[in-house]
Amino acid sequence: MNNRYHCCATCKHFRIEVQENRRKRIYCERLGFDTKPEYQFNCWEPKERVKKAMKESG
Predict the structure, then answer these.
(1) Measured between alpha carbons, how far is 51 from 40 in angstroms, rounded to an integer?
(2) Could you tell me if residue 1 is inside a domain?
(3) Tally of structural domains, the chain
(4) Which residues sit opposite 16 in a β-bridge?
């Protein structure tokens, strides 16, 4: 799926966690790897709201 929605930030496994030292950890819960919102991987599975937006845009 190569479209404007395909990025880690729109994946249902994307997480942001604030750690004790107030730093944010941005990671993929499924893979356990740190990531960035704009990264793209083949294992991408969009959040429900993203699926809806994709369907509405055609």
Answers:
(1) 16
(2) no
(3) 1
(4) 26
